[in-house]
């Protein structure tokens, strides 16, 4: 039996809706089991509404048809056509949204435009989470900065409740000047984070080394904007300036192609069995080609500002997966000689 009689494999080209923000989750104001129950009820309600509304639902925008928001109208806003969502952070509240649907493996992407100017202390996110006790999670987290200084993009991976796999990079463009695409390719073999068409990180399945990997728990898709001044900017030295609020971030062109796991049933066998291999091979990037390897190495050499694998103070004993996941690989002389990248000078951040 399938949720709303939809196919288990589905491709969704719309942005998925607002839920309690990551800010609330981090403050433990909303327990994970309670939030999971709320999402389940929302999914059932969505099915009921679609069945009873009939043709009327088809006339609604993608946001209003498929998703709901727990934020008020001042902190979660939709464009007139319902295809662009805006999150707002001010003294009153944080904001966020999340999908009705859970996935176990697939390609998940969205376009984002970040708040310009002084954004120090703010955290703007796009991520997946299983909402379980020993949860899995894949993060894009944009850490705000003082006026004239660039955002830092942090990626992180949690598996079976174990995280602290942070990497941070500078971006080679101004993420406040326009929309850019941020994609997670999540397969049984690897997790690849991409910015536009450029891979910025690969996290391989290293279960053979005893390293947990997110491969058993379905995850919902989330976005949020919240106050992270205790750690986000220069390790918390620079605080959020509320006089500069409201802070805003825009999202559009959400796209998912993955294995759907209904809330009420939770059957993951079709997603983890070999029957899904052909679909995932088509839907996700699992290995990097030569050009992508060059791009990843360029990002690692020029834009990487923090890597947990190199943090000997936090981790005197190296993690076993670090060598396999490194963005610095032994490229052949032919590949090393290819100048396939045309990025801005990484030292030039004057534009933002």
Automatic annotation (TrEMBL):
Its EC number is 2.4.1.207. Keywords: Apoplast, Cell wall, Cell wall biogenesis/degradation, Disulfide bond, Glycosidase, Hydrolase, Secreted, Transferase. It is an enzyme of class 2 (transferase). It holds the Pfam family Glyco_hydro_16. It is found in: Secreted, Cell wall; Secreted, Extracellular space, Apoplast. Its main location: secreted. PROSITE patterns: GH16_2 (PS51762). Residues 25-251 form the GH16 domain. InterPro entries: Beta-glucanase-like (IPR000757), Beta-glucanase/XTH (IPR044791), ConA-like_dom_sf (IPR013320), XET_C (IPR010713), XTH (IPR016455). Contains at least one intrachain disulfide bond essential for its enzymatic activity. It comes from the Eukaryota. The keyword Secreted applies. Catalyzes xyloglucan endohydrolysis (XEH) and/or endotransglycosylation (XET). Cleaves and religates xyloglucan polymers, an essential constituent of the primary cell wall, and thereby participates in cell wall construction of growing tissues. Belongs to the glycosyl hydrolase 16 family. This is Xyloglucan endotransglucosylase/hydrolase.
